[in-house]
């Protein structure tokens, strides 16, 4: 099978300081890929560089053999911290309807079909009871779920979710993972930046372990080894043991 | 003679009424995007920055509209250039550039040797609207409203979540400059009605009033336009009846509307908020 995403020799820096160095990997369709690594490892930077949101110093990024610009409408992105104004006059449903905008193109307005689809996406994340609320009047975890619904509404092929579970309770987290697994079984490819190592090997098909350089990329149970993880988390063995990683 | 009789009788008053109604609508509409994008200061800046353009246009004998749009857009680009290429923050950059443009404008105006012109540009003189100005205002109005209607989606996403807009390929920078151009056009159209100094009030006050009353952007836009129109008409009435500067009366009427919303808005008004939290406390004790 041809890879959905092929990355070679990727380098990114901020004002001359390396954020990620020489990253190479290639992902086949239908995978749920976890991106893990310590704070400042360059996980968010990697996503932004793949999505052309920040400039790359060097390297090639191909989606289905094409550049990002050619396929950008089939990509959904959930940033780590949405820099949005929570007092904006918009309710939950309208926020999710925005997810249908890329597919509509210029001049077309969302209609009943888009509205119903957005409601369905809200239902998936268990937020359909809040559709008329102004988005600032939700809890942090509820806001996160609404933005996930918006990503779903985009009907994307490839998803990039930067720490979607921050502030989300265990129950919703598992619901969301179930939704993501369903999507991958339909052939979608999903990248999730994730902090909680304890469940990383249960949740993901593949893991990408990053600490400026790509430490290891491969099937979850192969990457999820103490000695491999230790190379990224610079020898925090006791911490890893607490997280339930066995040797 | 009552205001209504006067409107029926005098053509100049009809023109004034039509022009200021249009100005009320477009200021209200564009103002919503200005306040939601946190660009209130930018509105003030652009309105001042059109002055040198207006002065040069008068000197060259071309329509002041052209000069105003050019100097407004150039200043907007200068502001963006300085803040993007240095550690100078946007608000500082705005402060530097618009005062510079305004100062230049004042010097240029003095060469025109007519202080009444300056007075009218600064404070507006809606009762002296010429037919050509009225048509320009109408043209600008249609262009602005059509743009907002056609690009509503794009304006909404880029104002609400510019990261998403950028990720799916919207040219957010160009949208910004497009909005700056619309803002400049609206400002120019408002010069005659409220004048440079007070344009910012027409842009911000009706939009802020609407913002207190609704949680949906399209409703906010309609409300804001309605408030803009009410302010314009009622303001014009006071201006005509008591022979006051039209800009000042229009702005004060919109301020009164704002204060009403500020105190009595069902959701955001401080009165209801106080009553609701008092009732809650009472029910618990
Ligand atoms: N806008 C920026 N300007 C300068 N340096 C930055 C910027 N954003 C990130 N960095 C630096 O780049 C490195 C990688 O940051 P990045 O945000 O990608 O880390 P991360 O792996 O996502 O961390 P976290 O787990 O905390 O989200 C960090 O050392 C950070 O200090
Ligand atoms: Mg991050």
TrEMBL record, chain A:
Residues 5-237 form the ABC transporter domain. One of its GO terms (molecular function) is ATP binding. It comes from the Bacteria. Belongs to the ABC transporter superfamily. SMART domains: AAA (SM00382). Keywords: ATP-binding, Nucleotide-binding, Transport. This is Manganese transporter. Pfam families: ABC_tran. PROSITE patterns: ABC_TRANSPORTER_1, ABC_TRANSPORTER_2. PANTHER family: IRON TRANSPORT SYSTEM ATP-BINDING PROTEIN HI_0361-RELATED (PTHR42734:SF5), METAL TRANSPORT SYSTEM ATP-BINDING PROTEIN TM_0124-RELATED (PTHR42734).
From TrEMBL, chain B:
Keywords: Membrane, Transmembrane, Transmembrane helix, Transport. InterPro entries: ABC_BtuC-like (IPR037294), ABC_TroCD (IPR001626). Its main location: membrane. One of its GO terms (biological process) is cellular response to iron ion. SUPFAM superfamilies: ABC transporter involved in vitamin B12 uptake, BtuC. One of its GO terms (cellular component) is ATP-binding cassette (ABC) transporter complex. CDD domains: TM_ABC_iron-siderophores_like (cd06550). It comes from the Bacteria. The keyword Acetylation does not apply. It is found in: Cell membrane; Membrane. The chain crosses the membrane at residues 12-36, 56-82, 94-114, 134-152, 173-190, 196-213, 220-238, 244-264. Pfam families: ABC-3. It is a multi-pass membrane protein. This protein is probably a component of a manganese permease, a binding protein-dependent, ATP-driven transport system. Belongs to the ABC-3 integral membrane protein family. PANTHER family: ABC-TRANSPORTER METAL-BINDING PROTEIN, IRON TRANSPORT SYSTEM MEMBRANE PROTEIN HI_0360-RELATED. This is Manganese transport system membrane protein MntC. It comes from Domibacillus aminovorans. The lineage of its organism: Bacteria, Bacillati, Bacillota, Bacilli, Bacillales.
């Amino acid at each position: 099978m041809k890879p959905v995403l092929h990355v070679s020799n990727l380098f990114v820096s901020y004002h001359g300081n390396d954020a990620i160095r020489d990253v190479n990997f290639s992902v086949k369709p239908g995978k749920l890929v976890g991106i893990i690594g310590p704070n400042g490892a360059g996980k968010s930077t990697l996503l932004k560089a793949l999505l052309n949101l920040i400039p790359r110093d060097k390297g090639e990024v191909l989606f289905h053999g094409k550049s990002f610009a050619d396929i950008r409408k089939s990509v959904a992105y959930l940033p780590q911290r949405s820099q949005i104004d929570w007092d904006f006059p918009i309710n939950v449903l309208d926020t999710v309807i925005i997810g249908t905008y890329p597919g509509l193109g210029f001049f077309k307005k969302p209609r009943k079909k888009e509205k119903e689809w957005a409601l369905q996406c809200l239902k998936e994340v268990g937020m359909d009871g809040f559709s008329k609320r102004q988005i600032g009047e939700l809890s942090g975890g509820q806001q996160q779920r609404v933005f996930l619904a918006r990503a779903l509404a985009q009907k994307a092929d490839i998803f990039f979710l930067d720490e979607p579970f921050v502030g989300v309770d265990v129950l919703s987290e598992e619901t969301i993972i179930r939704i993501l697994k369903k999507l991958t079984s339909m052939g979608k490819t999903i990248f999730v930046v994730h902090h909680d190592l304890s469940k990383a090997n249960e949740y993901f098909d593949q893991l990408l372990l990053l600490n400026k350089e790509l430490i290891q990329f491969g099937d979850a149970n192969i990457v999820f080894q103490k000695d491999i993880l230790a190379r990224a988390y610079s020898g925090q063995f006791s911490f890893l043991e607490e997280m339930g990683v066995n040797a | 003679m009552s205001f209504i009789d006067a409107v029926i009788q005098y053509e100049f008053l009809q023109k004034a009424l039509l022009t200021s109604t249009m100005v009320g609508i477009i200021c209200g509409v564009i103002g919503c995007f200005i306040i939601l994008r946190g660009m209130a200061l930018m509105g003030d800046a652009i309105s001042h920055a059109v002055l040198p353009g207006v002065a040069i246009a008068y000197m060259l004998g071309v329509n002041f509209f052209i000069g105003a749009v050019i100097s407004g857009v150039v200043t907007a680009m200068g502001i963006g250039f300085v803040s993007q290429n240095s550690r100078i923050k946007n608000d500082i950059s705005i402060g530097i550039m618009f005062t510079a443009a305004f100062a230049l404008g004042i010097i240029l105006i003095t060469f025109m040797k007519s202080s009444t012109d300056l007075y009218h540009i600064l404070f507006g003189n809606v009762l002296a609207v010429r037919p050509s100005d009225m048509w320009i205002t109408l043209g600008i109005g249609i262009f602005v409203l059509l743009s907002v209607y056609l690009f509503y989606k794009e304006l909404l996403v880029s104002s609400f979540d510019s990261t998403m807009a950028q990720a799916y390929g919207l040219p957010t920078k160009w949208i910004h400059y497009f909005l700056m151009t619309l803002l400049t056009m609206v400002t120019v159209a408002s010069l005659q009605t409220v004048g440079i100094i007070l344009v910012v009030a027409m842009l911000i006050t009706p939009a802020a009033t609407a913002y207190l009353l609704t949680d949906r952007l399209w409703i906010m836009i309609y409300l804001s336009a309605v408030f803009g129109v009410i302010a314009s008409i009622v303001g014009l009435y006071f201006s005509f009846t008591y022979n006051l500067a039209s800009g000042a009366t229009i702005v004060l009427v919109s301020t009164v509307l704002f204060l009403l919303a500020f105190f009595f808005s069902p959701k955001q008004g401080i009165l209801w908020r106080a009553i609701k939290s008092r009732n809650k406390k009472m029910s618990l004790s």
